Amino acid sequence: MGIGKLSEKVSELSDVIPYYFFCLFFSCISFSVAIIVFSGEISWLRPLPVIIYSFYVVIPYLLFAVPLQITFNKHPRKFNVFYLLIYTVLSLLAVILFNVILFEREPTYLVKTQIYYGLSFAAAAIYWFWDSVFLQKKIS
């Protein structure tokens, strides 16, 4: 690969990086609000709990969703249901791993709860939505 091709790739990537951060930021904030609403503690809907939950949410998003998002951006499609399905499957795995590592819970216990499926789907749908808004378009 020549220097010209390499600088062209870096230039393309530097144009897209801010959109990855916007998607990650809005996804973390939105999912934090969803967690608070799912928990039933609407009185907690203040800036500090949203910020705290966002710090916990950013780790699984960075480890699981962003690499998948980069792959999807090679063939961009807005609001593609197949992308949502893949995000959902990965989200189910990420929520299990995150809960087992942080809270040392048995995975079989977690799979039996409704909140597991609700949070997993919400995490996937929120990230898929912001991904479609910011990145899943042809970049010219």
The chain-level structural class is mainly alpha
Coarse morphology: globular
- Unreliable residue runs: none
Radius of gyration, in Å, reads 17 Å
Roughly what percent helix? over 70%
Counted beta strands: 0
Biggest pleated sheet: none
Number of helices: 5
How would you state the average pLDDT, rounded?
83
Distance between the termini: 22 Å
Run of helices and strands:
HHHHH
Portion in beta strands:
under 5%
Give your account of this protein's structure.
- Helix 1 packs across helix 5 and helix 3 crosses helix 5.
- The radius of gyration is 17 Å and the shape is globular.
- The protein starts with a helix and ends in a 6-residue tail after the last helix.
- Helices cover 80% and strands 0% of the residues.
- By secondary structure, it is mainly α.
List the keywords.
single chain, 140 residues, mainly alpha
